[in-house]
């Protein structure tokens, strides 16, 4: 589904490559979380994947084809929901369809209403974004991402601004959405427990520049609930991942 082949990137203000000949691959329908300390380059991987940044070297493939010159090959959901305050929730969700320009206004409205119902927001299309709670806004943003029609979804810390209980609820909801739709998801997080609960394997940034992502399988099957986090092997893996991250900030 997604493959990096010897990809490098250097920010103009830096004198080194933050991504240095990185190669990795993600299989279709999988759910991977990427963890690493702040500023290590995780979001840079996403920005190159969605075309916001151009690699200094190397090739990025989606479904076996280079992303150069392509559109509509991945959906991207940043940390903030970025719903336009002057548009209704339904109009926000329908934005990818509007940009693609292939459907009538009525068809876009119907698709948006169906997408909102699918994420538990039936009847919210006519509301304005400020009428929704934080969790509801994130669901609307996810519905918008789904309407890109892309099989590859990049979710960049989408729940980090939510309160603890809402965050847990959204994690459970996202797993349900993934198991129903089987899109390929890459999810950036700083929360080790969140990474363990959501993903089939965790991709760890152990150092910067990023030359590799250490892939660590999560020893819990799907479907799963939060009780899996109490399994001895999950507790052991959590401590191992914390130790890996701690080494990056220890002098």
UniProtKB/TrEMBL annotation:
CDD domains associated with the record: ABC_NrtD_SsuB_transporters
Protein keywords: ATP-binding, Nucleotide-binding, Transport
ABC transporter domain sequence ranges: 2-232
One Gene Ontology MF term: ATP hydrolysis activity
InterPro entries: AAA+_ATPase, ABC_transporter-like_ATP-bd, ABC_transporter-like_CS, ABC_transporter_ATP-bind, P-loop_NTPase
The keyword Transport is assigned to this record: yes
Domain of life: Bacteria
Protein name per UniProt: ABC transporter ATP-binding protein
């Amino acid at each position: 589904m997604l493959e990096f082949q010897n990809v490098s990137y250097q920010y103009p203000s830096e004198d080194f490559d933050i991504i240095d000949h990185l190669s990795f691959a993600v299989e279709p329908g999988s759910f991977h979380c990427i963890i690493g300390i702040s500023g290590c380059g995780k979001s840079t991987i996403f920005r190159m994947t969605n075309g916001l940044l151009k690699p200094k070297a190397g090739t990025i493939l989606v479904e076996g084809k280079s992303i150069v010159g392509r559109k509509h090959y991945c959906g991207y959901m940043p940390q903030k929901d970025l719903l336009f305050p002057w548009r209704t929730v339904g109009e926000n969700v329908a934005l990818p369809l509007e940009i693609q320009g292939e459907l009538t206004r009525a068809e876009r409205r119907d698709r948006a209403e169906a997408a909102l119902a699918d994420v538990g927001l039936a009847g919210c299309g006519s509301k304005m974004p400020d009428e929704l709670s934080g969790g509801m806004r994130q669901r609307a943003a996810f519905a918008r991402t789904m309407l890109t029609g892309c099989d590859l979804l990049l979710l960049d810390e989408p729940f980090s601004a939510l309160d603890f209980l809402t965050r847990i609820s959204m994690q459970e909801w996202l797993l349900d959405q993934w198991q129903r739709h089987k899109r390929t998801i890459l999810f950036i997080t700083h929360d080790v427990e969140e990474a363990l609960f959501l993903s089939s394997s965790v991709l760890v940034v152990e150092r910067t520049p990023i030359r590799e992502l250490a892939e660590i399988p999560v020893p819990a099957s799907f479907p799963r609930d939060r009780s899996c986090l109490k399994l001895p092997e999950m507790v052991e893996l959590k401590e191992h991942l914390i130790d890996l991250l701690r080494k990056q900030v220890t002098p």
